[in-house]
Amino acid sequence: MIGSAGRLIEAGVTPARWSAPGAALRGFLLIVALLHPLPVPAQDAPAPLPTIPIDDLTSRTLRAPAELQVAPGSTALDQLPTADFRPLTSGQANRGITGQDHWVRVRLSNANGTEPQSWVLHHETSYLDRLTIHYADNGGPLQRVSLSDRAPFEARPVNYRTLALPHTTPAGGHTDLYVHLGFDKADSLTLNLRLTRADLFHDASRRENLVYGAYFGAMGMFLLIAFIGSVILRESVYLHYAAFLGVSMAMWAMLNGFAYQYLWPDSVYWHNEGFHIVFLLMAITALQFSRGFLKTPRYFPRVNRALVAAQWVFAAGIVLRLAGVYVPVLVLSYLGLTQLVLLSVLGLMAYRRGMRYARWYSVAWLVYGVGLAFSVISAGSGFLEWGMKPLDFAQAGGVLESACLLIALGERLVGWDRARRRAIAIANQDPLTGLGNRRALEEAFDRLEERVQTTGVPVFLAFIDLDHFKAINDEHGHDAGDAVLIHLARILRNACRPEDICIRYGGEELALLLQVPHQEQAMEVTERIRQRFARESTRFEGTEIRHTLTAGIALALARDREPDRAEAIRRADRALYEGKRCGRNRCTAHLPEEQADAAPSLQGEGT
Ligand SMILES: Nc1nc2c(ncn2[C@@H]2O[C@H](COP(=O)(O)OP(=O)(O)OP(=O)(O)O)[C@@H](O)[C@H]2O)c(=O)[nH]1
């Protein structure tokens, strides 16, 4: 190519001259055409270079009047003047997967500019094997700069994540550009050559770094949360999510060109060959995460088998790529990335099977799909300028998707916590009366112990036992006995404050934990219950069952930690026994030994 350009310059054929057809010849042909009715044969004369004024340049994508020529093979520079160039429209810009050579030509005119115009010509996507720019100022000899992402990063004239060339067009002059783009191996090519005023280019580059930095910051935070989750919860699904995030970040770092700029500037191999491997890794980790998250082996065994098979196919793709196979792996990797959208359907299926948290999972893949669709539509329709912008949509979709997946993981955890609490509540509940059981009493003691220490208000324990309950069972049947217990539980609940603890201690024995400043108040509550239970008989299958209860009350928790728990239970039990002994249907408070000796512990005698 250098040879062609050299020959061209030696022969004095500069691009400016190709664009200046002979006016005399044109005039002659016009006269012949007017005089002669026969059609004029096609001209081989070089077309004038299309011109874009750049004297008030900010930033623009090179489009028509810039022209494009697609060559089936390679076109030499000296063939360009007569080559078949067409306007480079947005619709023409996305070339799909191609191995063809592409030329773009244009004249940048600073004819009206009183100052030289410095600009940077850069390609929007980071993956481009060859970007050769031939340029000439004011019709001078053509210069050539070869940029390639197959060269080490430091060989670039500008420290920028994509291929870029800085240049200055003289005041009142112009620069002719012949840009040659292509891949050594076929890949998806976009013709987004962007021309930006030099000072704006550096500002834009700083802004881009901020935006992409925010992306990597957010993803890094998700990754950290996932990693901490995996350590704390010891659940592989968090690790798989972390792996998926890590691979996504690597993929976008590569697509954006940051990986080559900052991570592996010397590794030409990875910058070029790593793309499809990372695409496939992303598909593999996404499926691995999905299988664990939705428990597909258990709930969707057939789907699970398909997912495992897909993972193996993608893994085989990686091996093939490492072995040098290209096009089939390229297609497979694109297929893998686009098919991930289908995971939203799997999420929906899981949601319909009762996995509430699967809805966020489903939304996540839908968002991913929307980002992807945006890219594909803009690539195919010219609806948006193709280049990094649609890719940015896909990337934004990716970060939103990752956030949704994190929410899904959180919701799954909350669901588990709810289920765990429900299980604990069930384990602590008496199924007949709905009151807490003996386990709940132990927990209540623990809770109240703390409250007593902070508030200083003591807690009293009341043991409540039905009188002659055996007789009720014997006379009316066991179900009637159950109805009586349920009736008593309802009275207990109604008489107590929400913070009081009502327990079925066992059999026909119930317990209350009341945090009140004085024993008399505990007695009052228990006495109210006793009276009401004696007053309100239980109706069972048309029969009125009359009943009474006996209660024993003792101090259970005090700030000085006296008595201990077992002693408190013993004391309440002793008071209850005392009540039974004295004729039942009464509330009896436990009194300290010295008072007990002096006075009977009987209180609130039955009515
Ligand atoms: N229906 C019913 N009866 C129960 C339940 N749990 C224990 N019982 C009965 O409660 C009765 C308790 O009888 P006892 O311990 O002799 O006491 P009591 O008849 O109430 O006599 P005192 O306590 O001395 O007044 C037994 O017949 C048990 O079968 C239950 O869940 N439902």
UniProtKB/TrEMBL annotation:
The chain crosses the membrane at residues 210-233, 240-263, 275-294, 306-326, 332-351, 363-384, 396-414. InterPro entries: 7TMR_DISM_rcpt_extracell_dom1, 7TMR_DISM_rcpt_extracell_dom2, Diguanylate_Cyclase, GGDEF_dom, Nucleotide_cyclase, Rev_trsase/Diguanyl_cyclase. It catalyses: 2 GTP = 3',3'-c-di-GMP + 2 diphosphate. It comes from the Bacteria. Coiled coil: none annotated. SMART domains: GGDEF. It holds the Pfam family GGDEF. GO terms for molecular function: diguanylate cyclase activity. Keywords: Membrane, Nucleotidyltransferase, Transferase, Transmembrane, Transmembrane helix. Residues 457-592 form the GGDEF domain. Its EC number is 2.7.7.65. The keyword Membrane applies. It is an enzyme of class 2 (transferase). PANTHER family: DIGUANYLATE CYCLASE DGCM-RELATED, REGULATORY COMPONENTS OF SENSORY TRANSDUCTION SYSTEM. This is diguanylate cyclase. It comes from Thiohalorhabdus methylotrophus.
